[in-house]
């Protein structure tokens, strides 16, 4: 194995292993609270769905990376390539939508009770479920073009122009099809990130006002003893910042490599880190800022 492949494998394993463990902990914890908890909060279902989406991203990216690193020819086949690339793209969209919904719900939660926005806050998990189903429908449709144009690398006609995606091969599509699905993906990302930015700005403003209001208590009151809504809001703001960082750095790198047609081992390692970064890092933000996780695990 080449040294660059060894480096890429180390980068992948250092993110995928802890990422899977962290997402499983978060998934089981909030699934436990949703299924057996006395109070079925909407945010518990949203975090369960986010952890599930992150696990799909890590697993699908991991299968294709392992196949590429160890030169497993025809390891996936056409059906396997279609499934892995399709699920990875769909899960990425689900992660964007779910993170946005999480930010909106928390912004509504901490909004003043006298405003109209507080009245829009979902009161039960069942009010959130239609939005999650809508996210699945939208992302299943937006990613559906991949099922027609993804082939296994070893089975593709090398004389046909196309693009390698890890171990798989993406055939060229007609311009109208390509621009249609690219426009839908762009519209989805811009819409949900705009909502994410608005809700994050709203939460930051509310936290600033709260901090000024209780400034005299900070000498005798630590952050861990702050109200649960404030701790949850800080956690979600950190998640928003991480998501936007990984998303835009990955976008800039992908644009640069696509424009310059360069695929160095360093850029591939950075891209792997960015693809798995948010999915692997986000559960530990939730775990580190929620002191009830060990108690719930002990109870299980």
Automatic annotation (TrEMBL):
Annotated GO biological process: response to pheromone; sensory perception of chemical stimulus
Domain (G-protein coupled receptors family 1 profile) spans 22-286
Gene Ontology terms: cellular component = plasma membrane
Q: Which PROSITE patterns does the entry mention? A: G_PROTEIN_RECEP_F1_2
- Family membership noted in the UniProt record: Belongs to the G-protein coupled receptor 1 family.
Q: Which GO terms describe its molecular function?
A: pheromone receptor activity
The top of its lineage is: Eukaryota, Metazoa, Chordata, Craniata, Vertebrata
Annotated TM spans: 12-32, 52-72, 93-111, 131-152, 229-248, 268-287
> What domain of life?
Eukaryota
Q: What is this protein called?
A: Vomeronasal type-1 receptor
Topology of this chain in the membrane: Multi-pass membrane protein
Localization recorded for this chain is: Cell membrane
């Amino acid at each position: 194995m080449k040294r660059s492949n060894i480096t890429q494998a180390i980068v992948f394993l250092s993110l995928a292993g802890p990422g899977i463990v962290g997402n499983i902990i978060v998934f089981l914890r909030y699934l436990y609270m949703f299924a057996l908890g006395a109070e079925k909060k909407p945010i518990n279902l949203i975090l369960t769905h986010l952890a599930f989406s992150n696990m799909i991203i890590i697993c699908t990216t991991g299968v294709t990376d392992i196949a590429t690193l160890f030169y497993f020819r025809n390891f996936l086949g056409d059906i396997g390539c279609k499934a892995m690339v399709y699920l990875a793209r769909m899960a990425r969209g689900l992660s964007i939508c779910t993170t946005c919904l999480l930010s909106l719900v928390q912004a509504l939660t901490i909004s003043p009770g006298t405003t109209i926005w507080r009245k829009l806050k979902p009161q039960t998990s069942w009010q959130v479920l239609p939005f999650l189903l809508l996210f699945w429908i939208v992302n299943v449709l937006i990613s559906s073009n991949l099922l027609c144009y993804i082939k296994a690398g070893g089975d593709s006609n090398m004389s046909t122009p196309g693009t390698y995606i890890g171990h798989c091969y993406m055939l060229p599509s007609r311009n109208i099809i390509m621009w249609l699905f690219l426009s839908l993906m762009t519209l989805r990302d811009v819409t949900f990130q705009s909502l994410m930015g608005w809700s994050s700005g709203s939460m930051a403003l509310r936290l600033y006002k709260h901090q000024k209001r209780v400034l005299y208590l900070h000498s005798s009151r630590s952050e861990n003893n702050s109200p649960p809504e404030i701790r949850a809001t800080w956690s979600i703001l950190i998640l928003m910042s991480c998501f936007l960082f990984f998303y835009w750095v990955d976008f800039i790198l992908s644009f640069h490599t696509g424009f310059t047609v360069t695929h160095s081992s360093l850029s591939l390692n950075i891209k792997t880190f960015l693809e798995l970064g948010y999915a692997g890092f986000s559960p530990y933000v939730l775990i580190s800022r929620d002191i009830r996780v060990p108690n719930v695990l002990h109870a299980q």
